[in-house]
Amino acid sequence: MSSGPSISGTVILCGYASPMYIVMVASECSPAAQAGGLGDVVSGLSRELELRGHAVEIVLPKYDCMRYEHIWGLHLVHEDLRVPWYGGAIGCSVWFGFVHGRKCFFIEPHARDRFFNRGAYYGFADETLRFAFFSKAALEFLLQSGKRPDVIHCHDWHTALAPVLLYEIYQYHGMHDQRVCFTVHNFRHQGIAGEDVLWATGLGKPQYYFDPLRMRDDSNASALNLMKGALLYSNFITTVSPRHAWEAMHTDQGFGLGHCLAVHQGKFGGVLNGVDYDAWNPEVDRRIPHRYGVHCLERKYANKEALRERFWLRRDFKPIVAYVGRLDPQKGVDLIRHAIFYSRQHGAQFVLLGSGSENGVHGQFCSLKRQLNEDPDCHLEIGFSDELAHLIYAGADMMIMPSLFEPCGLTQMIAMRYGTIPIVRAVGGLLDTVFDCDYSASPSPERNGYVFHQADPPGIESALRRAIRLWYDRPQAFRGLMENAMRCDHSWNRPGADYLNIYDYIRYKR
Ligand code: GLC
């Protein structure tokens, strides 16, 4: 990529001096509308770009289930946005509000289908139509309100149709200068759709779009793949870590899109996500009982006691191993369960905070919780709570992430900030951020956790055993590892610069 922008180490500066106008189109923005890490990235990156002097706006669906207490000054800005749909039109209201300082527009369709008024963000049978509508409405909103951003930054399959619509329709209505950056947070969900999406959005021409070089799904000739469309039509594609960019192209982690990515590799790269250190910083975190930093690490142990008290764990001289995150097959649920039993049997306590996105997994963990309810060395909390998450990051000694695949992962980066040692599987962003205490090729000051390779019980045991042993046998060395972890810089500073380079590159490249 000799003439490309600077990403993941290859520095070819384009000199982005002039302020840009960037519009993010996404299905989530934390903390108002959030189901996973996507929401954190949309808000964190937008904030960083604004701090660097660029104008950023975010377009989102107006879900009934949003956390409205996190939206300030919500008011109507567009009463009747007519969005063409199936040869007719759906009237929408567009709202504006600040989400922790970010400027957000919310699209509310007045459709019989109640697209975003269903009590949940995701999980409906007509998912591709819901988000095809959102993508169409977002562009229609930009068009009708005269907004002409330099870059439209779309995220995940929900907004994958936006670059297609821009190129095939909206450029002929005056939006010819807009460029699109598309970020894949998860290749597993690609938006597999039927022909109806074409008729609904006004694209039509099924023969044209069902061409294998356009949007026809590579494994199902009668389906469209919206994400494949985005890969083709966007000016630049990123995923959320350099390692995952490689995996998506060269292993089964591209979930069938590897070939398409290889074709477009000249405009594809990995940019590691950042963490919002305003929200996640033990030195100023108001949600934890005792604030601490790398120079007053002892105070972390007061949080450990608070965590034990909160979860009725016995006070004992033992490390606490934790898991915080979604209970999704992607996260290696069998290995999480294995780690719970292994930790208890090998001198550690275990705490878990997680919610299941699939019914089966959720049920399994609920019954595990009942089974372990009386255990003084273990507590499972099923559900999600921001406050508990902060307490666990601050109070635990180790954090496991045995993911089967992990495009980036935020948990390990947050854990490190809190001096909680990550124990991770060697995939995706985990491999880019965690360097094994014993086996890493990096110099010792950069070693910050434990890494294992095989996604099986002996694999995770090999890392957990080493971590627990170091904690007991060489406390000074364990402390050194904590300090290394806390000194890592995973702020948005670097990724912010990387994205600006990409924007600048696509802005001037014809
Ligand atoms: C998805 C990925 C996760 C990533 C997050 C934000 O949830 O699974 O690895 O950190 O998106 O990009």
Please give a quick description of this structure:
The protein has 510 residues and is of the alpha/beta class. 35% of the residues lie in helices and 20% in strands.
Which key phrases capture this entry?
510 residues; six-stranded parallel beta sheet; 17 helices; 2 domains; alpha/beta; binds alpha-D-glucopyranose
Report what the structure shows:
With 510 residues, the protein is α/β, with parallel strands linked by helices. It has two domains: 20-274 and 493-508, Rossmann fold; 298-487, 3-Layer(aba) Sandwich (Rossmann fold), CATH 3.40.50.2000. The chain has helices at residues 37-51, 127-144, 161-168, 196-201, 206-209, 226-233, 242-250, 258-263, 300-310, 333-345, 359-371, 386-395, 411-417, 428-433, 457-473, 475-487, 493-508, and strands at 21-25, 55-61, 71-85, 88-99, 102-109, 151-155, 179-184, 192-193, 224-225, 236-239, 268-270, 320-327, 349-356, 378-382, 398-401, 421-425, 450-452. Strands 3-4-5-2-1-6-7-10-11 form a nine-stranded mixed sheet, with helices on both faces. Strands 14-13-12-15-16-17 form a six-stranded parallel sheet, sandwiched between helices. β15 (398-401), α13 and β16 form a beta-alpha-beta unit. The longest helix is centred in the N-terminal third of the chain and has 18 residues, at 127-144. The chain is globular. Residues 8-13 have low confidence and may be disordered. Bound molecules: alpha-D-glucopyranose. Alpha-D-glucopyranose (GLC) binds next to α1. Alpha-D-glucopyranose is lined by residues 36-38, 41, 185-186, 240, 273, 406-410, 429.
